[in-house]
Design brief:
single chain; 291 residues; Pyruvate Kinase, Chain: A, domain 1; 5-stranded mixed sheet; 6 helices; 5 strands; 11% strand
């Protein structure tokens, strides 16, 4: 059985770790509430903007205007953007999204070439370690979704697709559903297209003023930018939620370990005390016999 003093040192070490993980949980929870509100606030605007853009595309589908972002081409090259975290200690958050991105890349490379942009230090390090060349990388992305970063990513997506250097753009990110549920999703950003059935049903129902082309030209940059911002918001909220869960689990495990060590310490201390009492009794008996 271990020495009681050694067990006591282990108890203090585990207790210190529990205090750290508890503090990290509280900090992550505060950040989660903030980013959760940000993500939820971005959803109605994103849905309304998407619906408006769909209606404009449907109204202009009869040849009123053309845009390179509406043209579907044979998919020979795909640009993927993978959104991960800069830091760890968030459970399976990073591994889930990175493994999904790797599967998407392997599947896409069966019939096309793939360029990869990583958002987050963990994603960059993951693919660098596998000797995968990156089209671009973004690190130190902060604790909340950044509108400037969303604009930069949106401009990159629009430029590469309009120049026909890529034929499809996919965003791979973690969607914030709840504190305990944040599945990985794949969103096709470009090309933009409305389902044929919706076009046929909706054509002629809308009168655009100014023209559909003018509205589309003004809305499109906002749609691309908002899509990037929404994905960043969802990813950040999911990251902090995963960190809350991971730190709470670590705190609970530390508490359980302290209880086990405390019982072990009490048994060891009781054993030492019993042994000392036995030695004292034996010594007293030997002394009495010698007299």
């Amino acid at each position: 059985m271990a020495n009681p003093r050694e067990i006591h040192r282990r108890i203090r070490a585990v207790n210190n770790t529990r205090q750290i993980t508890r503090a990290m949980e509280l900090v992550a929870r505060t950040k989660m509430y903030r980013t959760q509100q940000q993500a939820r606030a971005a959803r109605p605007y994103s849905e309304t903007l998407t619906e408006l853009l769909r209606r404009v595309v449907q109204g202009g589908a009869d040849g009123e205007f053309e845009s390179p972002l509406l043209k579907k081409r044979p998919v020979r090259r795909i640009l993927m953007m993978c959104f991960s975290a800069d830091r760890g200690l968030c459970g399976g958050y990073n591994s889930n999204v990175l493994k999904r991105a790797e599967r998407e890349m392997n599947a896409a490379m069966q019939g096309a070439e793939v360029d990869l942009i990583t958002v987050g230090r963990r994603g960059r390090d993951y693919f660098r370690w596998r000797d995968i060349d990156l089209f671009d990388e973004f690190i130190n992305i902060g604790e909340e979704a950044d509108l400037g970063l969303a604009r930069t990513l949106g401009r990159t997506a629009t430029r590469e697709y309009s120049a026909e250097r890529v034929d499809e753009i996919r965003l791979i990110y973690t969607h914030f559903a709840s504190v305990f549920s944040h599945p990985v999703e794949v969103f096709r950003l470009l090309p933009l297209a409305a389902p044929a059935a919706e076009r046929e049903r909706a054509s002629g129902l809308y009168l655009h003023e100014p023209s559909a082309e003018t509205i589309f030209t003004r809305i499109l940059p906002r749609f691309i930018e908002n899509s990037m911002f929404r994905v960043l918001s969802e990813a950040k909220a999911a990251e902090h939620a995963a960190r809350v869960t991971a730190m709470k689990s670590a705190t609970d495990n530390a508490g359980d370990l302290i209880e086990d060590l405390t019982r072990e310490y009490n048994r060891a201390r009781q054993t030492v005390i019993t042994r000392e009492i036995s030695e004292i009794a034996s010594g007293a008996e030997s002394l009495a016999q010698s007299r």
